[in-house]
Specification:
Layout: H1 8-25, H2 29-37, H3 45-57, H4 76-86, H5 108-120, E1 125-128, E2 144-148, E3 151-162, E4 169-175, E5 186-192, E6 198-201, E7 212-223, E8 227-228, H6 234-242, H7 248-270, E9 272-273, E10 276-277, H8 282-310, H9 316-340, H10 343-346, H11 352-359, H12 369-381
Parallel strand pairs: 1-4
Antiparallel strand pairs: 2-3, 3-7, 4-5, 5-8, 6-7, 9-10
Helix pairs in contact: 1-4, 4-7, 4-8, 7-8, 7-9, 8-9, 9-11, 9-12
The structure holds flavin-adenine dinucleotide (FAD).
Flavin-adenine dinucleotide is lined by residues 127-130, 135-137, 160-162, 204, 210, 212, 361, 364-366, 368, 370-371, 374.
Length: 392
């Protein structure tokens, strides 16, 4: 039997997050808009820390972090449901108690210096693979690391690195064997900022919290003990990082779409033109209907991808489908919602334009639309996936 219902526990957790979002985050929305429009981050660091502490006191900490590290170790389905709820506000918030999935490959010393403080929120990491000459084609990276005695010397430049402005350390992917390239010749290094890399912020159309940085490595010396995993095995780690939760990106966008369509419904019922609410016009009704169909489709794509993860299946195909569909549909939906709001939708009186700018990124980062299509079609043509889906 296919069962689309939530268990009582899943519902309780989802409802707890829903209440948290309504009580703690949504009241901050006007202030977030004001701050962002002044070029500041949505929430000051202290306020973000307070909110995370509040959630932690209620036992909400480390959504997918293993229990042995104090986390909740929730399922992928639960993580998706939580992201959908968080997405219903644009207040930039995520629960604390989290570290990059590949940091769990750390050895004992690295565990103490990097993994545990990152989970605790005492240190911040960033993931650095993209370069000016290598984005979609990540195998083409040119940053090098050469061995000198007991150290590695890193030279190169990374770009568009999220969190690169204030990270304490970077997970840096560099070529250690040019002949082998991505197949055994790329290594991942844990590189502290005080080892000598520099970062430069990159202005973007999205909100300040998204602002990435370029990182410059000019003869940065890294102790050999700072190789994460094995020398030459870095590319697989990079792919593991990227694949950690592709379904969570469209999940967050889905929450935003729900809220946006609710705003559009409310507006269309109160705004009158030519003697009647615009909601009476078929053109407006169709925009609402199409958006509802797409939101519902996206919900099941996201949850099905998550369910595949929880079932121990290879979910990459389903995750690519959810990411592609989420990116294109969310952008279409926010555009319709702006249209329904008319001139008001285009102003900064409302957060619609903020969502519009932010959602655009979903079609670009962590695999562009085109790269997802490439992956999906390859999977089909090579017989790794079927158009009949997982039920066969
Ligand atoms: C705000 C932001 C945050 C980011 N955060 C990070 C981060 O934390 N860490 C990190 O390492 N990177 C990060 N990135 C980089 C991001 O992952 C890349 O921008 C993305 O993978 C695309 O690479 P590119 O920009 O070089 O575009 P390109 O690869 O140059 O692509 C340009 C265009 O060509 C298309 N294209 C490319 N190859 C093909 C093909 N084979 N077939 C058809 N079309 C193709 C692309 O889809 C795109 O439309 C971030 C980017 C942004 C904008």
């Amino acid at each position: 039997m296919v069962d689309f219902s939530l268990s009582d526990t899943e519902r309780d957790i989802r409802d707890w997050v829903r209440t948290f979002v309504q009580r703690e985050l949504m009241p901050l929305e006007s202030e977030v808009l004001r701050r962002e429009r002044a070029g500041e981050r949505g929430l000051p660091k202290e306020q973000l820390a307070q909110l995370r502490d509040k959630a932690r006191q209620a036992g909400f900490w480390g959504v997918q972090t293993p229990e042995e590290y104090g986390g909740m170790d929730l399922s992928a389905v639960m993580a998706a449901l939580i992201e959908i709820e968080l997405g219903r506000t644009f207040v930039p918030f995520s629960f604390g108690g989290y570290a990059d999935n590949i940091l769990y490959h750390a050895n004992e010393e690295q565990r103490q210096r990097y993994l545990l403080p990152t989970i605790e929120g005492e240190r911040k990491s960033c993931f650095a693979i993209t370069e000016p000459g290598a984005g979609s084609d990540a195998k083409n990276i040119r940053t090098t690391a050469r061995k000198e005695g007991s150290e590695w010397v890193i030279d190169g430049e990374k770009t568009y690195i999220t969190g690169g402005i204030d990270a304490d350390f970077a997970l840096v992917f560099a070529v250690t064997d040019r002949d082998r390239g991505a197949d055994g010749g790329v290594t991942c290094f844990l590189v502290d900022r005080d080892m000598g890399w520099k970062s430069e912020p990159i202005e973007i159309m999205g909100p300040p919290d998204r602002m990435p940085a370029s990182l410059v490595f000019d003869g940065v010396r890294v102790p050999e003990g700072n190789v994460l995993g094995e020398v030459g095995r870095g590319f697989a780690l990079a792919m593991q990082w990227i694949g950690r939760g592709r379904y969570l990106l469209p999940a967050r966008a889905l929450g935003g779409c729900e809220r946006l369509v609710e705003m559009a419904m409310e507006h269309s019922q109160s705004r009158e033109t030519f003697g009647a609410p615009i909601a009476d016009r078929q053109s407006i009704q169709w925009m609402l209907a199409d958006s509802a169909v797409e939101i519902e489709s996206l919900r099941w794509l996201v949850l099905q991808a998550a369910w595949q993860i929880d079932s121990g299946m290879d979910s990459r195909h389903a995750q690519s489908i959810a990411k592609l569909y989420g990116g294109t549909r969310a952008n279409e939906i926010v555009d319709r919602v702006m249209q329904i709001h008319g001139g008001m939708g285009y102003t900064r009186e409302l957060p619609v334009e903020r969502w519009y700018r932010d959602l655009r990124l979903l079609r670009i980062f962590e695999g562009t639309d085109e790269i997802q299509r490439r992956t999906i079609s390859r999977n089909l043509l090579k017989g790794h996936a079927s158009v009949s889906g997982v039920l066969g």
